[in-house]
Amino acid sequence: MTLSSTLDLNDLLELIVTTAAELLDCEAASILLYDERNPRLYFAAATGSNPAQLAETPVPIDGSLAGTIFRTNQPLILNDVAHDPRHYSLVSEHIKFKVKSLLGVPMSIRERTVGVLEAVNKRSSPFDARDAALLSVTAAHAAVAIDNARLLQSTKKALQQVKESDRLKSNFLSLASQELRTPLGIIISYSTFLKADVEGENSERANQVLTAARKMRSLLDEMNNLAMLISDEMILKPERVTIQEMLNSACDGIQEFASAHDQKLVFLLPEEPIHINVDINKTTLALVNLLNNAIRFSPTGSDITVGAIRDGDEVLAWVQDCGRGIPKDRLQKIFEEFYQVETQDVCYFGGLGIGLSIAKGILEAQEGEIWAESEGEGAGAIFKVLLPVALPSPYA
Question: Where is pLDDT greater, at 143 or 340?
Answer without folding.
Answer: 143
